[in-house]
Amino acid sequence: MSGNAELTEVVADLHWNLAEWLGSDAQPKVFDRITGALDEEFSSVVTTGQAVDRETLLAGLWSARNLQPGLEIEVSEVVEVARGGNLIVVRFTAENRVADVRTRRLATGVLVTDGRTYQWRTVHETPAPVES
User: Fold this and answer.
1) Per-residue pLDDT, 121
2) What is the secondary structure of the chain as a DSSP string?
3) For the chain, which end, N or C, has fewer CB atoms within 10 Å of the first or last residue's CB respectively?
4) CB-CB contact of 49 with 125 (8 Å)
5) CA-closest candidate to residue 35, choices 69, 11, 68, 61
6) What ranges do the domains of the chain cover?
7) In which order are the strands placed within the sheet that holds 118-128?
8) pLDDT (tens digit per residue) in 82-97
9) Residue 129 — pLDDT band, cuts 50, 70, 90?
10) What residues does 76 pair with on adjacent strands?
11) Of 77, 88, 83, 92, nearest to 125 (Cα)?
12) Tell me: the pLDDT tens digits for 28-77?
């Protein structure tokens, strides 16, 4: 698997699990996969501009199970921005869809890798206009 294809899969996997958790009556193992994908030092800047730590994000996600029935998240335009040591910086577009409502965001994430596995260290999201 090429580097970009592998990164695309890593990004898509997390978002597929998020969509399943937020958009269905998902089993707790889905939440466990999300938890396992986040580094112990994970933090995020969400589209509102608020910085949240791992525990805050996970607590919010736990209570948001099936709050957006039918949610789908499509990931595209995954680009490796930089790589050094065990860190990879990746930029991507994610589009949430629930029925006819679409919400797009551009995101930059930092992944920690041991060469075989990946964990998210941080993500910074910015709202983006929905393409016609």
Assistant:
1) 98
2) --HHHHHHHHHHHHHHHHHHHHHS---HHHHHHHHHHEEEEEEEE-TTS-EEEHHHHHHHHHHTTTSSTT-EEEEEEEEEEEEETTEEEEEEEEEEEETTEEEEEEEEEEEEE-SS-EEEEEEEEEEEPPP-
3) C
4) no
5) 61
6) 3-128
7) 51-53, 38-45, 118-128, 101-113, 87-98, 72-84
8) 999 999 999 999 999 9
9) confident
10) 93
11) 92
12) 999 999 999 999 999 999 989 999 999 999 999 999 999 999 999 999 99
CATH number of 3-128: 3.10.450.50
In the predicted structure, residue 125 carries a pLDDT above the cut 90: yes
Q: How many CB atoms lie within 10 A of CB 35?
A: 16
Strands 72-84 and 38-45, sheet pairing: unpaired
Distances (CA, A) of 3 to 9, 42, 47, 64: 10, 23, 28, 33
Q: Which two tokens stand for residue 34?
A: 């999300």
> Which candidate, 3, 31, 26, 23, places its Cα nearest to that of 88?
3
